[in-house]
User: Fold this.
Amino acid sequence: GGAGGDAEVPQESLSRSQAAMLVAAFAGSLSLSIGASAAPRSRSAVNMQVAAEAQVAQPVALAKAADEARGLAIDSISKAHSGHMGLPLGCAEVGAVLWGQEMSYNPDDPTWLNRDRFILSAGHGSMFLYSWLHIAGYDLPKEEVSNFRVKDSKTPGHPEWQGMHPHTPGIESTTGPLGQGIGNGVGMAAAAKQAAATLNTADHTIIDHHVVVLCGDGCLQEGVANEAVAFAGHEKLDNLILMYDSNGVTLDKMAEHTQSEDVSMRFEAQGWEVLEVDGHDMDAITKAYRYAKDSDNGKPTLIVCKTIIGKGIDEIAGTCAAHGEAGVQYQDSGREALGLPADEKWYVSPDTYDYFKSHKAELVAKYDEWQETFKAWKAANADKAAMLEKPAPSAEELMAKMGGFEVGSGVATRNAGAEVLQPIAQEMPFYLSGSADLHGSNKNYMKGVGDFSKNNYAGRNFYYGIREHGMGAILNGMAFYGLHTVSGSTFLVFSGYMMGSVRVAALSGLPVSYIWTHDSIGVGEDGPTHQPVEVVAGLRAMPNLDVMRPGDAEETAAAYASSVTRPDGPTALILSRQNLAVIDTCSAEEKRAGTLKGGYVAKKEEGELEGILIGVGSELELAINAAKELGKGWRVVSMPCVEAFERQSAEYIESVLPKAMKAKTTAAEAGYTAAWYKYADKVLGVDSFGLSAPGDEVFEAKGLTVPAMVALAK
Assistant:
């Protein structure tokens, strides 16, 4: 399957007879080339003994469930006249094997620590997931399934994580932007490896689950997926199983029009095990899945499932038209061909409900066994149990552990971050940090906690290589996992590479922190390619992303504390390369408390208020020096986080920035100016790209000087 998007019937649709011929030919080729062997490439002898022992316990029951899952998708998409039928119909047998037999889960406890995680990276096929969650017994009643894409339903157009509203149990991550789910799966697998290495003991294993991702051609064409796949193979994340819905179809054209590489060979070259199966043969799927789950061979597994997109509706099966809602017009004939009753839409038979009720009982019995193991683990490992159950500290508690900074000294905020990060690492045992090959520049290395790698999964410093977008999706996966607090770093100017992942984090409410350094034209000699001028303003335009650009070391301490304690969304820490003075116009306590509020009075006026200067980040010192020249009646406001400031009460906002003073307010920031006119009538900033020169010379050339601010403010 290809991209997730609304689409008319593509040009490359076939007649019903042509489609039927294609289906027959494709199925025949599958049985000849692969059949039910599920053999890994070049490793058939290794696998066949394992495969021979595997079988589908109740193939008739699961085949019936697969067709009824197809029916739920057909009916819901037909009612909505919107959605994507191709994947739910084409992957029904995959779903039957996963939820009906192989995955470990408990519908009554969808956040159970040791559950297998399932991610639908091809999120446009969301009715696949909703159908199976309903059938498997999750709290997703048939009424919700039928309300697909209806406002405020639990079955939105693309899967939305359970941390969002309304709550949909069983959804492990927000997907839809293709490729992101693969990165999320890699992040979850890494998080599970880290948790297992930290918490498991020789006597008690409490984490040994797997992460399962279902993707399509569109996911694998996205660069973010390849970055994450490379990381997973290198770090030997063999708890990850990627099911590839390989149907040869994308939205506009058949896949052969846009891709010709051998995907299997690409994965093998990146350290993955690759299995190829008929995606409609449940015995083959079972054998491949069990091999992937049981092998523990240091390789994540790609299971290439050769499927027929839209299988079950002959008029569209195997064509580009099957991707979207073109099958709606064939709802009745498709349901009839599947053996579903004409007079009952959203039909699930009593036999299927009974089968899954029985299967649920088996799953709950295993869940209960795990609970006993967990109790024994807690009793035998009080230190680890305390670590796992330790409540999250408050920002104030963390700041109390952070040392102070000498007033008047010059400290780059990236260096201040390096200092305040250390007590965070000690106080938060499940805090993970990492960098896209820039630990030395970003200054976010945690001392004494080790490096995560295939040789040390207990380490907490992650090395992502030069893979910013992959890093972003992996961070989201770790956050979706639910145990860790995570952060990742690169230069601010390269944050654009990971913006797709940042947006998912923001709309999902994920507590991810981004440590983005080298924040302005102050970068200097590296020149305009590395001097962000438009980036911070763009970040501030994203809903639910806190953008914190601290003006000195004390503000940096509070920004870090805020970022790791914010529960409902991501935070961008925007940090300087150059030294910034630790300002002396208010106390460290006032600066830290004010930073948590997003904005505060950093220098109070003496006597009657004549004007206000807003200074942000490195321009806070600029504003303070300008105010000293303008006179005693000038106030300086520091606003390190606009978003946090706007969450304060109207009374507090008015006390800091009186509305009556807007005409006499001037703002300064070394970046794009337009947004600051909300608070000030005059703005000193940078609306053009930078220069290759020492930083102070670039500031001079761009007019960010004390005399320029004084002249503008008068």
Remarks:
- Residues 350-380 form the longest helix (31 residues).
- Confidence is low (pLDDT under 50) at residues 6-52.
- The first strand starts at residue 117 and ends at 120.
